[in-house]
Amino acid sequence: MGASRDVRVKRKAVVAESTRTITKKVGGDKNGGERVVTKSVGPKWYNADDVKTPVASRKHIHKPRKLRASLKAGAVMILLSGRHRGKRVVMLGSLPSGLILVTGPYAINGVPMRRVDPAYVIATSTTVDVSGVDVSKYDDAYFKRTKKPASSDADMEDSEEKKMTVPEHKVADQKTVDASLIAAIKKDHLLKGYLSSKFTLTNGQRPHELKF
Amino acid sequence: MPYARFVQIGRVCLVNYGPYRGSLVVVVNVLDHNRVLAEGPTSKVPRQVLQLTRLSLTDLMVPIQLGARSSTLAAAYAKAGTDDAWAASSWGKKLASRSKRAQLTDFDRFKVMVARKTKASAINKQVKVLKRSAA
Hints:
A: SH3 type barrels; two-stranded antiparallel ribbon; 9 strands; B: alpha+beta; SH3 type barrels; 5-stranded antiparallel beta sheet; 4 helices
């Protein structure tokens, strides 16, 4: 259609009379109980020209990346970035956002349950039994940050009081996860020390030739 | 003691370059000053001409004649217990431990570190006791 004239065409009354009305129940004592109402048949007119609708953007579609085979729940990872870099942590699972869920456990090396970009970890072949850990409640929303209260001059003065603290339910969650994880870690007498130590390269070690 | 390792028929050599690096071969024929005909019966190196610069001579020998056939060589190699002798030699042990170390995982390396520390502390304790008794 290339017509650009603003022509309005009357919609044909093709709908049968019987299907154009419906009976609706009406409340109230003096209203007769029900009433016949015409159905909404849509607009009487439509535009003769095509109305262009914008094409849906194909950008910004979130595709969760496939994790590499070495990233499995229970595997020990070496964190490569962030404040915990160099620490060895246990992977608990993956999240729909494409991040992986890890924990130190907190009681052993101070790494709480947190989300980590899989590009910034080295997966080792060591595994811990995580079948006793229930991670079903930990999703991306769980780790979403609560907004800081808007700062004002008053905040500047007593900023120490308004410091962000870990909510109590998260502390409790960490404790339950730690408890079941540490029970599994204790089965190997060296594993606890391994997880509490940091990864470093020493002389003569080439990371691309090392086996993890 | 004079120099004892010569390029000769039956000399066991370690290949130190190329696709067969790290495998043991036996000299079957000496072609000239630079090249030998060699074969590795257990290392699955087919009979071929190898440059002497790419070989390291070992102390081991296999009693064979010049140009011995593959089956004859394999029998003599097995009878001489060459592989066992190599594994028992300090050179063979060093290479074996090196390849074993390369296969260690991150956790294994941690275990080695702990074992070394335990050993050192035990030795130091004993040294202290002996020093005290000597003084």
